[in-house]
């Protein structure tokens, strides 16, 4: 019955997102598969946390969208998520959910909170940080960058990242209560979400500034993530040829998940 419930709920949410053009058709299919597994193999805690990330991130992507349109032309991924982006953000969590289904252990859940904290922190930092009145700085050199540049950080974006991670930690605590799962104090959950989310988000920025594949527009000279900009093909200027934006997201999620495992043991959630 849980699998049917998960499929129905996931279909309703993904279908609505597709209708609002927040998901492509492939992204919709991936979201339905993912949501079904999260609820069927997991419970409200797993599914609810995923939903919390998706809904808040979708709403933020639409906030002040008029100011973000030019910057989005530089991103490999935009607010209209395809299957690759859906899997990059939620695929590791899905594997952790299945692992916990086969071999139950608290470490899977700790890692899940860290992964979801990371993708939420990173998304919130991008969506809110891009509205900062002060330009971002490189996490490596601290040089001023153009808004939207990969590897850039700002005070507003960092605050948003911390808030996003804390929201995931808070949501996880609430969902454990509704699921009847034995738990410790709420403060530990918030700290795990906040700290692991920040760790993963800053890892994402570091990888983006150092090894992610980046291109330069031959027209405007801006460093971008896409193969085409200003109507002309771009040229790769740095990074490893196989280090895509999606892979950076996956690696940073792993870092956030590992951080959360350590914190979960310390706080004995």
Structure write-up:
With 269 residues, this protein is mostly helical. The chain is 67% helix and 6% strand. The chain contains 9 helices and 7 strands, in the order ααααααββααβββββα. It has helices at 2-19, 25-42, 44-62, 65-72, 83-102, 106-129, 155-178, 186-210, 245-267, and strands at 137-138, 152-153, 214-216, 223-224, 228-229, 232-233, 235-238. Strands 4-3-7 form a 3-stranded antiparallel sheet, with no helix packed on it. α1 packs antiparallel against α2 and α2 runs parallel beside α5 (83-102). The model has no long low-confidence stretch (mean pLDDT 87).
The overall average pLDDT, rounded, is 87
Shape: globular
Q: Give the N-terminus to C-terminus distance in angstroms.
A: 29 Å
β-strand percent reads: 5-15%
Structural class: mainly alpha
Radius of gyration: 18 Å
> Going across the major beta sheet, what is the strand order?
4-3-7
* Biggest beta sheet summary: 3 strands, antiparallel
- Helix count? 9
Give me the strand/helix succession. Answer: HHHHHHEEHHEEEEEH
Secondary structure: number of strands: 7
Instruction: Assign a percent range to the helix content.
Output: 55-70%
User: Low-confidence parts lasting 5 or more residues at pLDDT below 50?
Assistant: none
């Amino acid at each position: 019955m849980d699998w049917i419930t998960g499929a129905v709920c996931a279909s309703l949410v993904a279908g609505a997102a597709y209708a609002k053009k927040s998901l492509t058709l492939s992204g919709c299919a991936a979201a339905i598969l993912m949501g079904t597994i999260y609820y069927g193999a997991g419970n409200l805690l797993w599914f609810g946390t995923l939903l919390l990330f998706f809904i808040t991130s979708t709403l933020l992507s639409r906030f002040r969208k008029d100011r973000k349109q030019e910057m989005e032309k530089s991103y490999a991924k935009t607010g209209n998520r395809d299957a690759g982006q859906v899997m990059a953000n939620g695929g590791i969590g899905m594997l952790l959910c299945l692992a916990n289904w086969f071999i139950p252990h608290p470490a899977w859940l700790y890692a899940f909170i860290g992964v979801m904290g990371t993708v939420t922190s990173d998304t919130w930092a991008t969506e809110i940080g891009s509205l900062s009145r002060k330009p971002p700085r490189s996490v490596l050199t601290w040089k001023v960058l153009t808004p939207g540049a990969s590897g850039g950080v700002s005070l507003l974006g960092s605050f948003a990242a911390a808030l996003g991670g804390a929201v995931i930690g808070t949501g996880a605590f609430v969902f454990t209560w509704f699921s009847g799962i034995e738990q410790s104090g709420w403060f530990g959950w918030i700290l795990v979400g906040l700290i692991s989310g920040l760790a993963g988000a800053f890892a994402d920025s570091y990888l983006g500034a150092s090894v992610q594949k980046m291109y330069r527009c031959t027209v405007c000279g801006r460093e971008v993530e896409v193969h085409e900009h200003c109507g002309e093909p771009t040229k790769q200027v740095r990074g490893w040829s196989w280090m895509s934006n999606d892979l950076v997201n996956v690696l940073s999620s792993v870092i956030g998940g590992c951080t959360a495992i350590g914190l979960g043991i310390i706080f004995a959630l």
